[in-house]
Amino acid sequence: MSKQNSIPAVTDAKKISRRSFFQRLIFALAGLMTAAVGIPLVGFIFRPLFKKPPSVWRPVGKIDSFKIGETVAVTFLQSSPLPWAGVTAKTAAWLRRESTDNFTAFSTSCTHLGCPVRWRSEAQLFMCPCHGGVYDKDGSVAAGPPPLPLPRYPTRVTKDQVEILVTL
Ligand code: FES
């Protein structure tokens, strides 16, 4: 009698065990499939955050076209312009020839809210028309709300051509 009772119990235990095994197998396969799809997707989404922005040297003019001591506006292509960007692919900087082969390039964007700053040669200052921000000749903040000096671009002279290093 006790033998008959024990046989169905063993069978149930095997069924439960088999069911449990397949449940775990399904969960494991589902986890593998989720990882196979999810990891590349997460990588695709977050990759731009860790990708170093491209930098490129852009020509802004022949060295002889700039006078020593003068600050002039120059325009150049952004580092990675879109093919359909048209004129919006261009940006600008204030370029000063400091000596024979030494140039300083300042961003034209105010560090307060990004308005374009203007060079006033008579005052030897960069002025922002939006909220009265004023920068000294060296780009440091002289007055107004800008929290930081004007950013500078690295410059170089290659084969009589002045170039600015542009980063996206
Ligand atoms: S944007 Fe230049 S002072 Fe505000």
Q: Can you tell me about this structure?
A:
The chain is an alpha+beta fold and 168 residues long. The protein has 2 domains: 1-51; 55-167, Rieske [2Fe-2S] iron-sulphur domain (Rieske Iron-sulfur Protein, 3-layer Sandwich), CATH 2.102.10.10. The protein is built from 1 helix and 11 strands. The protein has one helix at residues 2-50, and strands spanning 55-62, 71-77, 90-97, 103-107, 118-120, 125-127, 134-135, 141-143, 152-153, 155-158, 161-167. The protein starts with a helix and ends with a strand. FE2/S2 (inorganic) cluster binds next to loops. Residues 110, 112-113, 115, 128, 130-131, 133, 144-146 line the site of FE2/S2 (inorganic) cluster (FES).
> Which strand-content bin applies to the residues?
25-35%
Helix content: 25-40%
Give the overall shape. Answer: elongated
Question: What is the third-level CATH name, the topology of the largest domain?
Answer: Rieske Iron-sulfur Protein
User: What's the main sheet like?
Assistant: 4 strands, antiparallel
Cα-atom Rg, whole angstroms? 32 Å
The molecules bound to the chains, other than polymers, are: FE2/S2 (inorganic) cluster
The total beta strand count reads 11
SSE succession: HEEEEEEEEEEE
Task: Indicate how many domains the architecture comprises.
Answer: 2
Q: Order of strands across the widest beta sheet?
A: 2-3-4-9
Structural class: alpha+beta
Mean pLDDT: 88
Q: What's the CATH C level of the largest domain?
A: Mainly Beta
The CATH superfamily of the largest domain is known as Rieske [2Fe-2S] iron-sulphur domain
Given as residue ranges, the uncertain stretches (5+ residues, pLDDT < 50) are none
Question: What's the tally of helices?
Answer: 1
CATH architecture of the largest domain: 3-layer Sandwich
Distance between the termini: 84 Å
